[in-house]
Amino acid sequence: MNASDREGVLTAALEDYLEAIFHLCRHDQAARSRDIAEALNVHKSTVTAALKSLGQMNLINYAPYEAVTLTPEGRRLAMDVVGRHAALKDFFIQVLRVNPEMAETAACGMEHAIPREIVEKLIRFAKEMRSCPRMRDDKEMLAEACSCSAYKNETDASAGKSAGKKASRRMSRPE
User: Fold this and answer.
1) From CA 110, how far away is CA 60, in angstroms rounded?
2) Exposed (0-12), middle (13-18) or buried (19+): which is 6, by Cβ within 10 Å?
3) pLDDT band for position 166 (50/70/90)?
4) 119-135: per-residue pLDDT in tens?
5) C-alpha angle 122/113/126, rounded to 5°?
6) Cα–Cα distance, 49 to 171 (Å, whole number)
């Protein structure tokens, strides 16, 4: 089974296990079943079943009652999930101005479904937004640059409260 076949059989839940093992191994060099259960808020028997599956896919080094480590391929896949999660969360917080708790929840749900190509484009877009001095801190300018009508509507709804301030800011901006 090659890497692309392996990625096809990984469920979102198994990706969550890889991600949890990755984070636990960063601190302790290996992950224990009870630590994985605690990190994912699941029962130890559920962890055992998932570890068996990941072990059969050669993504982890697993033996009952032993600590778990990632294989090189498991580490690569875990790092991919962790990277998608971090990129999505950063995009939600920095570009869309979502609160960190909501961004964390959304990133956790989306990290499994979004293709790497789209994540890379979101990262490039976020970098462009941060590097543009006119966009960096101005929600109104972000809405004008964004074609997303939902974002514009959200911004427009809050615009009535500070319309005077926005008009004066717009007039004082250099063209």
Assistant:
1) 24
2) middle
3) very low
4) 889 888 888 877 777 66
5) 10
6) 62
The position carrying tokens 């005077």 is: 164
Q: Helix 12-28 and helix 33-40: axis angle, to 10°? A: 120
Q: Is the dihedral of CA 123, 70, 58, 49 positive or negative?
A: negative
Chain centroid offset of residue 122 CA: 11
Q: What is the dihedral of CA 30, 33, 36, 40, to 10 degrees?
A: 170
Torsion angle, alpha carbons of 62, 108, 72, 64, to 10: 0
CB 70 within 8 Å of CB 60: yes
What are the residue ranges of helices labelled H in 42-148?
44-56, 72-90, 100-110, 116-131, 139-145
Q: Greater confidence, 163 or 63?
A: 63
Q: Rounded distance, CA 62 to CA 52, Å? A: 7
Q: In angstroms, rounded to a whole number, what is the distance separating the alpha carbons of residues 112 and 7?
A: 11
CA distances in angstroms from 82 to 73, 76, 116, 171, listed in the order given: 14, 10, 12, 43
Which pair of structure tokens corresponds to residue 120?
A: 């890379």
For residue 5, with 0-12 CB atoms within 10 Å meaning exposed, 13-18 middle and 19 or more buried, which class applies?
A: exposed
